[in-house]
Amino acid sequence: MTMTTTVPLPAGWPTTEERARAVQDELRLRVVLDEPGPPPGTGHVTGVDVAYDDERDLVVAAAVVLDAASLHVVAEATAAGRVPFPYVPGLLAFREIPAVLAALDALPVPPGLVVCDGYGVAHPRRFGLASHLGVLTGLPTIGVAKNPFTFTYEEPGTRRGAASPLLAGVEEVGRALRTRDAVKPVFVSVGHRTSLDTACAHTLALTPEYRLPETTRRADALCRRALKEATA
DNA sequence: GCGACAG
DNA sequence: ATCTTGTCGC
Question: PANTHER family per the record (predicted)?
Fold first, then answer.
């Protein structure tokens, strides 16, 4: 059974793009990049995702906890509220995080590593959704995105497991990682308290069958379902 | 100035 | 993100 809670807007949540960028420039200093992160296949791995109904100004987030070894669902929670920020490239976190925080708070078990649908340090100011969520919660986080955003990369080898650097100019901000033979890669970046190697290892452990991590797939399905039930 | 741009 | 049917393939 899934419990849906109501989203409280964190105190001081920015309303303007200018303020939001200032918040990123301040919080980015707290990102921890010198920890390896939890080893793949142990403990919990949690996927978070968000669905919208802009017509009704409604946002629903889902958090799904998996046992990292079996990939079985251990717990799940959802949270619904008003959309707190418009979609602006580079400021996605301000639109998604309040609902995600509420869903994580509603979980009955520790989340372990949190897998986000989007980017971590692969970001214009090196502070994407996954890093922001990590700093706010203290949890280890990674970002697994479906698109290369503004970054560049060389096509990785055709086999699952092949990878190539995701580049912001000459700086490596993440990795294009093939999770399925001959299928478009995903774009992995560190969020908080995790290394890039660990992030990629987790991503491969979570993709035994599909291109996207099992965590993301489960969270995506849950928030869409909860949005329909909230709309109905 | 123009275009591109995680979800 | 979201709007949306059928269809090709394992």
Answer: ENDONUCLEASE V (PTHR28511)
Q: Which of residues 60-99 of A touch strand B (CB under 7 A)?
A: 87, 89-93
Q: What's the mean pLDDT in A62-72?
A: 98
**Going from the N-terminus, what domains does chain A have, and what CATH number goes with each?**
3-8+35-231 (3.30.2170.10)
What is the pLDDT confidence band of residue A8, given thresholds at 50, 70 and 90? confident
Structure tokens at A198: 């660990």
pLDDT in tens, A84-134: 999 999 999 999 999 999 999 999 999 999 999 999 999 999 999 999 999
Report chain A's C-alpha Rg in angstroms: 16
Nearest one of A228, A219, A232, A221 to A100, comparing CA atoms: A219
- The pLDDT, as a whole number, for residue A47 is 98
Look up the protein residue whose alpha carbon has the minimum distance to the C1' of B5: A89
DSSP letter, residue A79: E
* Three-class SS state of A226: helix
A167 in Cβ contact with A151 (< 8 Å): yes
**Which nucleotides of strand C lie within 7 A of protein CB?**
1-2
The DSSP line for A167-188 is EETTEEEEEEE--STTS--EEE
Whether nucleic acid strand B comes within 7 Å of the CB of A13, the answer is: no
**CA of A93, C1' of C2: distance in angstroms:** 19
Determine the distance between A18 (CA) and B1 (C1') in angstroms.
22
B1 C1' to A1 CA distance, Å: 54
Q: Tens digits of per-residue pLDDT, A148-169? A: 999 999 999 999 999 999 999 9
